[in-house]
Design brief:
CATH topology of the largest domain: Glutamine Phosphoribosylpyrophosphate, subunit 1, domain 1
Distance between the termini: 87 Å
Shape: globular
CATH architecture of the largest domain: 4-Layer Sandwich
Number of strands: 13
Largest sheet: 5 strands, antiparallel
CATH class of the largest domain: Alpha Beta
CATH superfamily of the largest domain: Aminohydrolase, N-terminal nucleophile (Ntn) domain
Length: 288
Amino acid sequence: MMNDTGNFLNRIGIEDRELALQEATNHNGDFLNLLKHADYPLKIDLPSETTQQGADVEIAHSTTVVAVRYRDGVIIAGDRRATAGTAVIYDRAEKVLQIDRHSVLAISGSPAIAYEIARILEHSFQYFRRSQLQELSLEGKLRMLSRLIRDNLAMALQGLGGVIPIFALYDLNAADDENGGKIFFYDALGAHFENVNFATTGSGSIWIRGVLRYLSRFTDTPLHEMDMQQAAITLLRLLDIASEYDAATSGYNAKVQIFPTIKTVTRTGVNTVSDDDLATWYTEAQPE
């Protein structure tokens, strides 16, 4: 082994250290090519190019989602566009998913991972309800979603399956004269935070977060005092604003009549706002 090493050093001209250093640095860290260049005796044949190119995989992503606490509970909306890189691969993606009768998950990030998280969450809530003959507690629901997001951390760190959701629900333990609507958002490690009036996530959220703050504090009708129609129109306008500045977000598509998905979460349960209502309200809300 020592003789082989000595012969190798002689072949690459170890006496001329500057030339050896120059030759070594020209191989971009590829040691196998360096051995081949030095005519080192190998037992196997080297391929013509030893640098391996990784597969270029385009992962679908989806944005933007926004939730607002309005007069009767929580209203939550998501645009319908899914993108892979700079390509729009789907324009009817569902990003607001009902989990049980009084909770909704709004997704931004990788739909494949997010849909799987939503399915596991739905089945877990259902299993607990049927096996224990009672609903899972609010804290139990939050912690279960935290664990699912944390378990996905390895994929998120690789840039393949990051999911940053909004979880909206109605707390049935709230008094009849109180609004039991609650909004929570998560980070990639699974930590959850409660937002009192609104939350938004996704690539288009940076364009509308300030608008939400303004509407929440400085208008005659703040977000938490709006009725369903006012809140739905506000969300439609916000997604239109996001779509103007973010290519991965779509607003209302007038050519094919595709509206964002909008759901409400109230004491009576989860309801989907129909496209007919959205079309009527959107037309009425346009400036003359």
